[in-house]
Design goal:
776 residues; mainly alpha; 40 helices; globular; disordered C terminus
Length: 776
C-alpha cells in the first residue's frame, strides 16, 4: 500500500528525522536512521544546514555512532547492512578500522538474517566497487592488518558466490607469484572446499605434499632475505602456506619426509615467530605416526636447540612478543653495564625451547607415566625455568609445569601449593598463569583435590575472594570465568561464592569490565535454568545480595555507574522463576526435581525485608514482589506469606501511595490463592507444619544468617522487631487453630537458636561485605 505525502509534510518529516539521528538515546537514533534509509534512494537533496545528503548523513552516523550496528534489536542491525552500507559509492569511504568492525559485527552476529545481510552486502554490492575482481577487492580490504576478519569475509563471500568458486584456478604460475591477497584466497578456498566436501574441486586446486613443501621452502627463503618494507607481507604468506599444509594427505611417504625436514628447519630457525612455531608443531602432530612419536620428535628438536653453541651476532629477536619480554630481563648485563651476548643467547634459546614445549604439551593427552620421555624435559628444562630469577622464564616454565600437571595427577597434587603461592605472592602475569592452572586442575581432578591440599573450603574461598577483589581486571575476569565453568558443570557448589559473584556482576567496580559482564550475563541465566537445585541456591542468595546492592546504589559516587535496584530485582525475579526451567528443557535426570513454588520462599524473604527497611529498599522489594510466581505454592507457604503481609499492614504500613497500591495488589493476589488452596485437615495441621519445617530446614540457617547480615546482625532494634513479629504470629495462630501455637513458638525458638549458631559466619560475611563497600 502506497501513501502519498504532501511536500510540506515530507519536509517536516525529513527535518525531524535529521534532528533525531543526533538524539541522546541510541534507540531513537537507530529508529531515525532506519526511517531515513528508506528515503535515501529517492532523495538526493542536500540539507542546507550541513550540506549533506541523506546517504552522507547515514555514513556520518555509522562513523560516529557505534550503536547502529550493535543495537539489541536484530531488525535494526540488519537494516544497517541492507540500506545505508549497500548504497555507498565506495566502501573505502569508511576507514580500514570501521570496515573491519562493520564486517566483524555483521558476519559474527547471533542472528542469521543479519549475517546473511552482511554477506550479501559484500558478495553482491561491495564487490562491484572492485569491478567484480576478487583479488582487487581483497587488496582494498587490507588483509594483512586483520587477517581473521578478512578470512571470515572471504569465506562468507565464497559461501554466497559459488559461481566464483568454480572459476578459480590455482595453477603453477599462481603458486610462483603469491601475494598476501592470493595466499589468503588460496587458504580460504581450500578450507571452504574441505568444509563443503567438494573433493573434485579440492583435488584440482590442492598441490601435492612434495610440491607444497618446495613452495614453503621457496617463500621461507625469500622471507629470510626480505627487506623490512616487505618482511611483514612474506611472513603473512608463510603463515597461509603453513595453514594450507594442514589440509594435505600425508600418505605419500616421500612428501611426508620432505615436509618433516622442512618443519624441523623452521623450528630450528632463530627468528621464527610464535604463530609459525604453533603451525609447525600442529603439522608435526599430523604427520607423526602416533602421539608418542610426536612427543619424541619435538623433544629431540628441543634438545638440538639447547645444544646450539655457535653465536650469530646478527641474530634477531624472536618476534615482537619476545622483544617486549626481553626488556624485563635484568641479569644479562655485565659489571660495566653492557649486555652479555652469550648469556642473552642462552636465555633466548631457553625461552624458545619453553615455547615449543608449551605448544607440544597443549596438543598431547598421553599420561606422563605412559610417556617417560617427558620426564627428561620436565627435569632439565621446565623445573629450572620455574626456579629462574627472570620473570619471563618463570612464567613460561610455570605454564609448562601446569600443562604437565594436567597429564599426571600425582605431579599436579604435589604442586598445588606452589601454584597457590604464586597466586598470593607473584607478580600479576605470574598470578594470572597460576590461577588459570589451578582452575585447570580443579576441572581435571575435582575441586575436592585442590580444596584438601589447600587446607579446606575456607582457604579456597579466601584465595578465590582475593582474586575477585584484585586490582587487575584480567585476574578478576579469569577468576570469574573459572568459577562459572566449575559451577555450571556442578563441580563446585557454594552459596557464599555464588553470592560473591552476584554482587560482583552488579557492583560499580565491574560495570565497565566487559569480560566479567559478558561472562556473568551468560552464566546466571544458564545456571539458574539448568537445574532446580541451582535455582534453589540462587534463590537463597538473591534477597541478601539485593539488600547489599541497594545500599551500594544509595552510596554511589558521581562518577560511578551501576544498574538500578529495580532493574536488578527484575533480573533476579526472572532467574528464580521455576517456569523457565521447564522451557529450557535441559534439567538433568539426576536432578532432585523442580520446586515450582520456590518463589514463594523468595517472596517471604522479600516481605521480611519490607518489614525491616524503608526507602529505596522497600520500593524495590515491593516491585519485585509483584513478579513472584506463587500460584503453585502449598498452604503452609501461602500461610507464612499471609501472616507476614498482615504483620506489615498492622505494624509497618507502607506510606507511599504508589508503593502501597502495588503491595495491596500482591495481597489481593495472595488472598485469591490462599482461599483456593486445599487446606490440611485439622488433625494433620500440626504434622503439615512440622513437614514444612523439615522441607525448609536446609535453607533456614542460611536465611536467618543472610537476614542478620542484611539488617545488621545483633542490632537491638532488629531483635525487638523480630520478637514483635514472633509474638504477633503466636497470637494469630492461637486464634486460628489453637494447638498450632506451640508449633509456631517452636519455630520461632528454632530460628533464634539458628541465628546464634550461625552468628560467627554471619559476622564474617558482614565483614567481607563492609570491606567491599569501603573499597567502592
Amino acid at each position: 500500500m502506497c501513501i502519498r505525502l504532501s511536500e510540506e509534510l515530507y519536509q517536516e518529516l525529513r527535518t525531524a528525522l535529521f534532528e533525531r539521528i543526533r538524539d541522546k538515546e541510541p534507540s531513537i537514533r537507530i529508529q531515525a536512521a532506519t526511517a531515513l534509509s528508506r528515503l535515501q534512494s529517492a532523495d538526493d537533496e542536500v540539507d542546507q544546514t550541513d550540506g549533506k545528503t541523506i546517504t552522507k548523513k547515514l555514513l556520518w552516523l555509522l562513523q560516529h555512532d557505534p550503536s547502529a550496528s550493535r543495537d539489541s534489536d536484530a531488525v535494526n542491525r540488519r537494516v544497517v547492512y541492507l540500506k545505508p552500507m549497500v548504497q555507498l559509492q565506495d566502501f573505502r569511504d569508511l576507514s580500514t578500522e570501521q570496515r573491519h568492525k562493520l564486517l566483524k559485527w555483521g558476519l559474527k552476529d547471533r542472528d542469521p538474517l543479519v549475517r546473511r545481510a552482511a554477506s550479501n552486502m559484500i558478495s553482491k554490492e561491495w564487490i562491484k566497487h572492485a569491478d567484480n575482481n576478487l583479488l582487487e577487492f581483497l587488496e582494498r580490504m587490507d588483509v594483512v592488518g586483520d587477517g581473521a576478519v578478512a578470512e571470515d569475509m572471504l569465506y562468507s563471500f565464497l559461501d554466497t558466490r559459488t559461481d566464483i568458486v568454480k572459476s578459480i584456478k590455482l595453477d603453477e604460475p599462481f603458486w610462483e607469484n603469491l601475494s598476501t591477497e592470493s595466499a589468503l584466497m588460496a587458504k580460504v578456498l581450500i578450507k571452504f572446499l574441505k568444509g563443503t566436501k567438494d573433493d573434485e574441486k579440492l583435488d584440482e586446486v590442492l598441490p601435492t605434499v612434495t610440491r607444497l613443501a618446495f613452495i614453503i621452502q621457496h617463500y621461507n627463503d625469500i622471507w629470510q632475505q626480505a627487506p623490512k618494507e616487505t618482511e611483514a607481507d612474506y611472513e603473512f604468506i608463510m603463515s597461509q602456506l603453513l595453514d594450507i599444509a594442514k589440509y594435505l594427505d600425508y600418505a605419500d611417504e616421500v612428501g611426508r619426509r620432505k615436509m618433516f625436514v622442512l618443519l624441523r628447519d623452521i623450528l630450528m630457525a632463530p627468528d621464527m615467530p610464535d604463530d609459525h612455531m604453533i603451525s609447525a608443531v600442529q603439522l608435526f602432530k599430523i604427520i607423526s605416526l602416533d602421539e608418542r612419536d610426536f612427543v619424541r620428535t619435538i623433544i629431540e628438536i628441543i634438545s638440538d636447540i639447547e645444544e646450539l653453541s655457535s653465536f650469530d651476532e646478527d641474530m634477531e629477536m624472536e618476534g615482537p612478543s619476545k622483544k617486549l619480554k626481553l626488556s624485563e630481563i635484568t641479569s644479562i648485563k655485565t659489571e660495566t653495564g653492557e649486555v652479555d651476548q652469550i648469556l642473552l643467547q642462552k636465555m633466548l634459546l631457553q625461552l624458545k625451547c619453553l615455547s615449543i614445549c608449551k605448544f607440544m604439551l597443549e596438543r598431547t593427552e598421553e599420561s606422563l607415566q605412559d610417556n617417560s620421555t617427558l620426564y627428561g624435559v620436565l627435569n632439565e628444562l621446565i623445573v629450572p625455568s620455574v626456579q629462574s630469577k627472570e620473570a619471563v622464564l618463570r612464567e613460561e616454565g610455570l605454564h609448562c609445569l601446569g600443562l604437565c600437571c594436567t597429564l599426571d595427577k600425582t605431579l599436579g597434587h604435589h604442586n598445588i601449593l606452589l601454584f597457590a603461592h604464586c597466586i598470593n605472592n607473584g607478580h600479576e602475569q605470574l598470578q594470572q598463569k597460576a590461577l588459570m592452572i589451578l582452575f585447570d586442575l580443579m576441572m581435571t581432578y575435582g575441586v575436592s583435590t585442590v580444596e584438601t591440599k589447600l587446607g579446606g573450603l575456607e582457604e579456597l574461598r579466601k584465595l578465590l575472594e582475593n582474586c575477585v577483589d584484585h586490582d587487575n581486571a584480567e585476574i578478576q575476569s579469569v577468576t570469574v570465568e573459572g568459577l562459572s565453568k566449575l559451577m555450571l558443570t556442578r563441580m563446585f557448589r557454594d552459596e557464599y561464592t555464588l553470592r560473591m559473584m552476584l554482587l560482583l556482576y552488579f557492583f560499580p567496580t565491574s560495570f565497565d569490565n566487559e569480560k566479567i559482564q559478558q561472562c556473568l550475563s551468560y552464566f546466571f541465566p544458564a545456571y539458574a535454568y539448568s537445574s532446580g537445585e541451582n535455582q534453589k541456591l540462587l534463590a537463597q542468595v538473591a534477597i541478601p545480595a539485593l539488600l547489599n546492592l541497594c545500599d551500594t546504589y544509595v552510596d554511589l559516587e558521581k562518577d560511578e555507574k551501576m544498574a538500578t535496584p529495580t532493574r536488578i530485582s527484575d533480573m533476579l525475579a526472572d532467574w528464580t522463576d521455576p517456569r523457565k526451567i521447564e522451557v529450557s528443557n535441559i534439567a538433568t535426570s539426576n536432578d532432585e526435581g523442580i520446586d515450582t513454588a520456590i518463589q514463594a520462599d523468595v517472596a517471604y524473604e522479600i516481605l521480611k525485608a519490607i518489614y525491616h527497611h524503608s526507602g529505596i529498599v522497600r520500593k524495590t522489594m515491593v516491585h519485585m514482589l509483584l513478579k513472584m510466581y506463587i500460584s503453585e505454592a502449598s498452604y503452609q507457604r501461602l500461610d507464612k506469606l499471609k501472616k507476614m503481609t498482615d504483620l506489615i499492614t498492622e505494624k509497618k504500613p507502607i506510606k507511599e501511595a504508589a508503593v502501597r497500591n502495588s503491595f495491596n495488589r500482591f495481597v489481593k493476589t495472595l488472598d485469591k490463592y490462599y482461599d483456593a488452596v486445599e487446606k490440611p485437615a485439622e488433625g494433620e495441621a500440626e504434622d503439615a507444619a512440622t513437614d514444612n519445617e523439615r522441607h525448609e530446614d536446609g535453607g533456614d540457617g542460611a536465611a536467618v544468617e543472610k537476614e542478620s547480615v542484611a539488617t545488621g546482625g545483633d542490632d537491638p532494634s532488629v531483635a525487638e522487631e523480630e520478637s514483635m513479629a514472633a509474638t504477633d504470629d503466636e497470637e494469630r495462630s492461637v486464634a486460628r487453630k489453637g494447638s498450632g501455637a506451640a508449633t509456631d513458638d517452636e519455630r520461632s525458638v528454632a530460628e533464634r537458636g539458628s541465628t546464634a549458631e550461625k552468628n560467627s559466619e554471619a559476622e564474617y560475611a558482614m565483614k567481607s561485605s563492609s570491606e567491599d563497600e569501603d573499597e567502592d
